[in-house]
Amino acid sequence: RSKLIRNHSYEKADVNMEVDNDKNKFKVLVVDDEIVNLQVLASQLILNNYNVTTALSGKKALKLISEESFDLVILDVMMPKMSGYEVCKRIREKFTLVDLPVLMLTANSQLNNVCLGFECGTNDYIIKPFEKSELLARIKTLITMKNAVKLSVIDSLTGIFNRKHLFELAELLFNEHRAEKKIMSIIMMDIDNFKILNDKYGHGIGDMILKDIVTRCQEVLRPTDTIGRYGGEEFTVILPNTEIEIAHKIAERIRKNVSAKPIKIGEENEEIVTLSLGIGESNSTNKSVLDIFYEADKALYKAKSSGKNKVTT
Length: 313
Ligand code: GH3
Ligand code: MG
Ligand code: MG
Ligand code: MG
Prior knowledge:
Mean pLDDT: 92
Low-confidence stretches: 8-20
Radius of gyration: 23 Å
Order of helices and strands: HEHEHEHEHEHHEHHEEHEEEHE
Bound molecules: 3'-deoxy-guanosine-5'-triphosphate, magnesium ion
């Protein structure tokens, strides 16, 4: 299985780490069936500036994970009903090692089960009773690694996938679709007359408009669609398992959601911003995923040259 990151649930707060308020503390979920263990772990983590949530069972932990986003899970192995191994396996059905690292707490007597822990998808383990300094060092390394990987795939301005990762993901999906004889589509879009906005309000406001437009696109995308930043003010949406007619409908939804109401610029101003969109679809003549990008790009050019603010195939 590929280790590529497929979802785009990254929050900008994760990328802008320099701000030191409570919202930007790293969130750690501690799971242990013994309340005393939870208290000891939680107090040590809080002292070291982590935002801590606790769960007394695997079931509760999985529920919390499905509702909020965490930077790390510290997971006791020996728990009644659902063991740490089982919890970890369930976590890995939804999150990669990078999306949500897990640190298992193993009792000395279970040391020969350490390999089982890794098979179930833990990133690391620590032996109970643990040294506080070792625990803190391991936590720090796991979170640092997770964020380093994120920074290499995420566009820091908009919080969506960058161009490099967009291509890697598209290529992976292209090969999967071809093997399974399924169809995928790609939407390329470019903001209309963006230079005028930049010249009128400056680059900083231009950046803010870019972020607003990404949000408006995300509002109408399905959970399986992925948006990325192709270049300056050009964006791409990858639509798995989607034929061109449906892709056209989604592109129209994006176009309307962006142009329907003006974007606020400070207290005084607002501007209607529009997009031109082109669509490409995988078919029997595609030699590579680049052919779909090329087709979408050609369609985008048609939209631009026939009046802008439209979707073309
Ligand atoms: P068209 O309708 O033909 O697309 O016209 P346009 O003015 O949008 O032209 P074009 O796409 O060629 O120009 C894009 C402009 O977007 C030029 C560049 O200064 C600006 N731009 C690119 N990246 C960024 C960015 O990250 N921030 C800001 N503020 N502006 C950017
Ligand atoms: Mg236990
Ligand atoms: Mg452009
Ligand atoms: Mg443009």
